[in-house]
């Protein structure tokens, strides 16, 4: 029987701690059935690294953008560069972009930078990888105001079933990660258990995990197993469905 194969739909392989031993990390993940990756950028400094990976067979998708924590790195030049890269590379996505209102002092600049990047995603018809923390109302407002309909992944989902449904209505898949491994994350575990499975994806957000920031995509094997247990599913069936969900994007 063929081993189930999974895609880590959110891992920061360009982070130095992962990039410095990438072949080893990729081999280790593949051994556990984690064979494909979606890699988002954090700042414009990552963009050239990601662009150079476009032909790698393990890459499912690459996303160029600026993370809300680092919105001050998004300049008019970055905006022009991002537009050019999207124009030149039809398979690029836009990410990781969005809002994080944990960081209240950055609220206004985050909104401005998110909107500018969303404009480009819309102009070039690309899905986005969305970071959205304590900001669902504003996020929803902006998506609707901009009439953004290209969807994407609502990454690191940490909300309730009801909040997931709002994101799904706007065309997003729900990216669930390491929170699934936390027995106290009851709301999110319930969302993972009861949402229609065609809207789910799984991710590690490597290397970021539990403050030590040394996670690697191999962790996805545990997340997949936990989701299969929660839903009473066979691992192979889960892998097939998640692959279909991705193929729709
Ligand atoms: Zn991320």
TrEMBL record:
Superkingdom as given in the UniProt entry: Bacteria
Residue positions binding a divalent metal cation 2: 131, 155
Name of the protein described by the UniProt record: TatD DNase family protein
GO cellular component: cytosol
CDD domains the UniProt entry points to: TatD_DNAse
Keyword presence, Calcium: no
Residues that hold a divalent metal cation 1 according to the record: 10, 12, 96, 205
UniProt GO molecular function: hydrolase activity, acting on ester bonds; metal ion binding
UniProt cross-references to InterPro entries, sorted A to Z: DNase_TatD-rel_CS (IPR018228), Metal_Hydrolase (IPR032466), TatD-like (IPR001130)
Keywords annotated in UniProt: Hydrolase, Metal-binding
Record family assignment: Belongs to the metallo-dependent hydrolases superfamily. TatD-type hydrolase family.
């Amino acid at each position: 029987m063929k081993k189930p194969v999974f895609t880590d739909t959110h891992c920061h392989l360009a982070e130095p701690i992962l990039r410095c031993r990438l072949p080893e990390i990729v081999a280790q993940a593949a051994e556990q059935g984690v064979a494909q990756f979606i890699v988002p950028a954090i700042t414009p400094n990552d963009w050239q690294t990601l662009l150079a990976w476009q032909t790698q067979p393990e890459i499912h998708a690459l996303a160029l953008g600026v993370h809300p924590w680092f919105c001050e790195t998004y300049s008019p030049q970055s905006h022009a560069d991002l537009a050019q890269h999207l124009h030149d590379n039809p398979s690029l996505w836009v990410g990781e972009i969005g809002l994080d209102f944990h960081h209240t002092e950055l609220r206004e600049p985050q909104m401005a930078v998110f909107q500018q990047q969303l404009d480009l995603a819309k102009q070039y018809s690309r899905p986005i990888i969305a970071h959205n923390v304590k900001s669902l109302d504003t996020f929803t407002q902006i998506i609707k105001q901009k009439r953004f309909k290209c969807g994407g992944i609502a990454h690191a989902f940490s909300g309730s079933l009801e909040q997931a449904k709002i994101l799904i209505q706007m065309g997003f898949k729900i990216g669930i990660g390491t929170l699934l491994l936390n027995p106290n994350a009851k709301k999110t575990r319930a969302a993972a258990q009861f949402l229609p499975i065609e809207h789910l994806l799984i991710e590690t957000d490597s290397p970021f995990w539990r403050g030590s920031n040394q996670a690697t995509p191999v962790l996805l094997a545990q997340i997949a197993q936990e989701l299969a247990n929660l839903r009473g599913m066979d691992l192979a069936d889960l892998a097939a469905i998640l692959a279909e969900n991705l193929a729709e994007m």
